[in-house]
Amino acid sequence: MNSIELMKKDIEYQIGKLKFSGIEKNKKPSEILFVGSGDSFVSGLIASYESNFNCLCIDPAEIIINPTLSKKKTVCFISISGKTMAIILAAKKVKKYCKETIAITANPNSDLAKNCTKVILLDYQKPSLPTSGTLGFMLTTMTALALVKKSNRVINTKKVYEKAKKLSKDIIDKIKKYFSFSVEQSIFFLGNSTLFPISCYGSLKINEVLGLKSAAFSIEHFCHSPLFSLRDKDILLIFSSTNQYINKKATRLNFLLNKQKFYSFLIEIPFNTNMEILLFSTLFVQLLVYGLAKEKKLENCYFLENKGLLEISSDLIY
Known about the structure:
47% of the residues lie in helices and 14% in strands. The chain has helices at residues 3-13, 39-50, 60-65, 85-93, 111-114, 135-148, 157-175, 195-210, 219-224, 244-259, 274-295, 302-305, 307-317; strands at 32-35, 56-58, 74-78, 100-105, 118-121, 186-190, 213-217, 235-240, 263-268. Helix 2 packs parallel to helix 6 and helix 2 packs antiparallel against helix 8. It is globular.
């Protein structure tokens, strides 16, 4: 099995398996500080949005530079491998300032786990070969959410998956005629509220799986400046939801971009609850990127094929 097919297997494994972990919700989410990098940062950021910003998520570098940011906080370090160098250093730096440290990891014997006062162990087994984060990302996200929201099972997971699968296929069918898989072409993900961190996640998947340029913005921020970097070959995916304000902004921007002959597509989410919106948008991103990888006839994620860049990444991360 190659890394692209393993990615698909991990995506499908989420059907019927996802639920809030049995972690007791923290009585004071305002005391929680999430720390992570890459996908893990996005997991913490989603929890921050879903807590109405009662908790925050920051990059480990900020804690390393200024560990007093952790004062009187419960600092949750998110790293599946538990080997991320900056995360481990940050965990060491905050010990004398924070209330407690928690490692959210799948590796209980990692240096991160050893440098935290508590470990929340993810039910995740390291895959047989490296691939892009899908199942692991969702597990860390659900764990972070469980710490700041009342525990609740995700309902209709299969239904959400099937709708996300259908929409991803429809969008792929629409964009494949324009999608050249060229380094001259960029993909923009736009979304407001929790759909902004999901947009960040989408951008990360495009980077590591397809090796293409991608960026994520809130709709307002995009219109202030990044809009002017658009080129005629670029593709825009704009998340919309049933929230009236978000829908109005997203629909208007999509209409104006199409009017100017840009390749803009509105991603309308057919669910109302926060958890269904989160699950649907995440699965949509995962299935979209997998589908585009299949269109390109990739067998492995780009980050595995470019050994030079992978070496730089590993050197700085681990």
